[in-house]
Write a structure and sequence with these properties.
- This protein has about 100 residues and is mostly helical.
- Helix 1 packs parallel to helix 6 (about 80-95).
- The longest helix is centred in the first third of the chain and has 23 residues, at about 5-25.
- It is built from six helices and two strands, in the order H-H-E-H-H-H-E-H.
- The protein is about 65% helix and about 5% strand.
């Protein structure tokens, strides 16, 4: 794993954790036991060129990132950074928290 991969893993883990928490709270179900393993495989496979960012094509390997790609790509650059993914994850958590 390169030094550029680790920040992505952290950002995507945050997204997965927040999404999992939101989904569990909404459904009151526990996550599937293999969810962590699936997330780990997706994260490792996403940044295939190891440039520290995800293109739209690479993001397809992360369904939630791909689904919200245009929202995350605030600079309309055609790629997302780990900071953008983290920022959107925090926004989603705040939005969800405000609905209670």
């Amino acid at each position: 794993m390169t030094h550029r991969t680790l920040p992505w893993l952290a950002a995507l883990a945050l997204v997965g954790t927040l999404q999992g928490a939101l989904a569990n709270e909404a459904s009151n179900d526990s996550p599937a036991p293999d969810r962590a393993a699936r997330m780990k495989r997706m994260k490792a496979a996403a940044d295939v060129d190891h440039d520290g960012r995800l293109s739209r094509e690479e993001a397809k390997k992360m369904p939630r990132v791909a689904q919200h790609f245009d929202e995350i790509d605030t600079g309309k650059t055609g790629y997302v950074t780990k900071e953008q993914v983290q920022a959107r994850a925090m926004e989603m958590a705040a939005e969800h928290g405000g609905r209670k």
